[in-house]
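Fold sample X.
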Amino acid sequence: MECRVLSIQSHVVRGYVGNKSASFPLQVLGFEVDSINSVQFSNHTGYSHWKGQVLTADELHVLYEGIKLNNVHHYDYVLTGYSRDTSFLEMVVDIIQELKRANPSLVYVCDPVLGDHGSMYVPQNLHPVYKNKVVPVADIITPNQFEAELLTGKQISTEKEAVEVMDLLHAMGPDTVVITSSDLPSRLGDQFLVSLGSQRTVHADGSRSTQRVRMDVPKVDAVFVGTGDLFAAMLLAWTHHYPNDLKTACEKTFSVMHHVIQRTISYAHELAGPGRRPSPPQLELRMVQSKADIEDPAIVMKATVIS
């Protein structure tokens, strides 16, 4: 059966960010993807220069109305990422609520992009919109540690506290929470970072169970743009295929990320030459070249089930 995704994200002409990071891998895995570009830039903002346009909330509404008028607004998934505007974000919530009324089984996957490493890189007034309006309608969220702490008001310094934060996020709405990166110490040493996931399942008899996993992910000495968008898209895809098995979905998702990043960093170093740091154009994700790994990733990242 055809599975259709509405992806509301940024777009760049050159490179892989936002919709381009999400659409290609989802299409490779058999999803039909309708894309609305929240911004349209020449390239991502890690370059020295960029030009482009930003979609307003009113313009988003016009596009959605056009889809509705043609009665082609049945979606199985909605995927959203970076936004800098409260009215745009509130319009996204209105659209999702309407789509969920039309299809109660619709799954909303949200990357709540607020900041990282202790500082916000979106306006402060987006925080309450995410906390009070966006997260409550989300089914799957992919915050980093800083974003998870910001949304719950609770700090994470131990695995136990990370589990408590994920439980707080469940209580806000989402059944699946993946903290994509954290500062927790890895059992494999300081060359690894820790990611954690939690999935709450309601069974046919009304009982609930929660599966929690931990992953130790190799650190890479480079700055990539678009990896968060790719991660959210892959988690959408693999939780679709393994709806009640977060361990397998995470292993598939993190393995895809590993393959794409390793291919990208190898290519970037080859272009840059010995002893030189790769530039932003050289670090654009090698997405097309990773098609086979996206379709059927060799599992190189293993998840551990935690209590």
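Fold sample Y, listed below.
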Amino acid sequence: MDSTVRASSDSSAGPPPYFRGNEGSLVSALKTLLFFTILMVTLPIGLYFATKAYIFEGSMKMTSSDSYFYAAIVAVLAVHVVLALFVYVAWNEGTPKSKGKHD
């Protein structure tokens, strides 16, 4: 019984080797996260001001208080779209892409 304890302790005696195999997937995940973070900040804010100024006040001639309300709705919808896209991309990021038929 002493030999089994010694064999298991010898295999974990040193630090685990550093494998660079997962580095590509880590970089890919961080790029995806950075992309959607930037998109989450810029898209709703940009759509808010663009729709308020050009669509609701400019084209539709709404009052300022009405355009605030509808532009906020557009910004909230943009947040939901970005979140849904992020979940979709994150869910499918680790799956292998196969083009052939598997038997």
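Sample Y note: The chain has a mean pLDDT of 83.
Also: The longest helix spans residues 23-59.
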